[in-house]
Design goal:
The chain is of the alpha+beta class. It folds into 4 domains: 93 residues, Rossmann fold, CATH 3.40.50.20; 79 residues, Dna Ligase, domain 1, CATH 3.30.1490; 142 residues, ATP-grasp fold, B domain (D-amino Acid Aminotransferase, Chain A, domain 1, 2-Layer Sandwich); 99 residues. It has 12 helices and 18 strands. The relative contact order is 0.14.
């Protein structure tokens, strides 16, 4: 770091991860932030963060060499002291560039966390609980894999995110249709650059895995409304894993599209500590150096758990903001310090007790169980909703502008293979307690269509 100067941090932006309007100010708490966009910025939210950045530049780059060179050029021109990315689609390129410059980064084992085929193999070898799988790159390989595994199985992309292209298969006769649906969705996201930047050709890298039998039995009270999976948020710093908290969920809709994430987790401390240890085993097996982590875990009826996946980046959408509100702990700021080579104060153990509750809820044209809206031509307009009628007293709701369509836009129709791509956006909710947050999350999902009609 240059003596007598504030540290400089290069933020490599690609679609995905925490919102710019939260991330850039969080980084600016500890460094002069320079933003390199390798994709378009959300235009209707740019005014919320651009003034905080010391500089902003855009590069059109795609493919490993081109993207890494763009990052290296910006880093050298700006004489930065560290490089950060919050989207997993930029992590490989950022890690390579930071390594060349001798800056802290996720390390040479990052590929284990980017390629889900390799991740599954690492966990299988380490004895970490995860489903049986087969890597596939053609319809013929997918058909063979389905014949070898226990039905039902899930066809999923090796490099994607946001539930894109996840397609369940219940019978061998469904393989061809599932393959066509998944690859079509991947081709569409590839064209829009919602894809891995450093590894061209990823739309044909998939895997087939056995679907985990999830259950909330024995975890939550009957009829609680919570889903049978969750995520552990954390940071690896110089090879040491620091789990920070658990984010709860409500059930997904078909196939496995997420609708809401909620803090704090309401499981007992004993159960949260058990999950914390499984997450530690999973992340340690990946052998990462310095990066955020977002580890998704499935709950099972027998009291055990199984790993879904673990990304080498912080939780996306508004998880970091939720953590800041509930636990007074900002993981974006903490990770920025780590990547600048600074000391970071981590909790001695994963945080359980928080203050208030915060959640992120999808703006999606289905209800909470996946029933499509009856009016396929509905227009999204937050100004049309009477929030006082829909939500509990004391609950605040805010449209996440950087991740949402502008008011007046046509509401996207939900297609199961498209996952989060079919969101119209996201709501950020802050409530007095976890029970109220859960109730109001369902109120939005089940009442938004009618509220837009009023």
């Amino acid at each position: 770091m240059r003596a007598g100067h504030s540290p400089r941090l290069l933020f490599v932006y690609v679609k995905g991860g925490a919102t710019l309007e939260f991330a850039v100010p969080s980084m600016a708490e500890v460094a002069e932030v320079h933003v390199l966009g390798l994709g378009p910025f959300p235009p209707h939210a740019e005014h919320l963060w651009r003034g905080v950045a010391a500089s902003v530049r855009r590069e059109q780059a795609f493919g490993r060499e081109e993207v890494v060179n763009a990052i290296l050029t910006a880093a050298k021109d700006l004489r930065v002291d560290g490089i950060i990315a919050l989207s997993e689609f930029a992590m490989l390129a950022v890690t390579e560039a930071a390594s060349i410059l001798g800056m802290p980064n996720a390390g040479p084992n990052l590929l284990r966390s980017r390629d889900k085929r390799l991740m599954r193999q690492v966990w299988q070898d380490a004895g970490v609980p995860s489903p049986a799988f087969r890597p596939v790159s053609s319809l013929a390989e997918a058909e063979q894999a389905v014949g070898e595994l226990r039905l039902p199985v899930l066809l999923k992309a090796a490099w994607s995110a946001g539930s894109v292209a996840q397609t369940p298969i219940y019978d061998r006769s469904e393989v061809a249709a599932a393959w066509a649906s998944a690859t079509r969705a991947l081709d569409e996201t590839y064209e829009s650059r919602y894809t891995e930047l450093a590894v061209p050709g990823t739309p044909r890298d998939l895997l087939v895995e056995e679907i985990i039998d999830g259950s909330t039995d024995g975890w939550y009270p009957p009829g609680s409304g919570y889903g049978d999976y969750l995520s552990v948020e954390g940071i690896v710093h110089d090879g040491v894993y620091h789990p920070l908290c658990i984010t709860g969920r409500i059930p997904t809709i078909s196939p496995f599209t997420e609708l809401a994430n909620l803090l704090p987790c309401t499981l007992s401390e004993q159960k949260q500590r058990e999950i914390e240890q499984v997450a530690r085993d999973a992340v340690d097996a990946l052998g990462l150096d310095t990066c955020g982590t977002h580890t998704e875990i499935k709950l099972k009826a027998d009291g055990s758990v199984a790993l879904i996946e673990s990304a080498a980046r912080l939780g996306g959408v508004n998880v970091a903001r939720q953590m800041t509100e509930v636990f007074r702990l900002n993981p974006v700021t903490m990770l920025s310090r780590a990547l600048l080579g600074q000391q970071v104060e981590y909790p001695s153990e994963m945080l359980i007790e928080g203050r208030g509750a915060a959640g992120t809820v999808a703006i999606i044209a289905t209800d909470s169980v996946g029933r499509h809206w009856t009016d396929g031509d509905r227009v999204w307009d937050s100004r049309a909703v009477d929030w006082a009628q829909l939500l509990s007293p004391g609950t605040d709701v805010e449209v996440v502008r950087g991740l949402s369509l502008p008011d007046g836009s046509p509401m996207p129709r939900y297609g199961s293979a498209n996952g989060a791509v079919d969101y119209a956006g996201l709501f950020y909710l802050a409530a007095n307690d976890a029970a109220t947050l859960l109730k109001d999350s369902y109120a939005i999902l089940d009442g938004l269509e009618q509220a837009l009609r009023s």
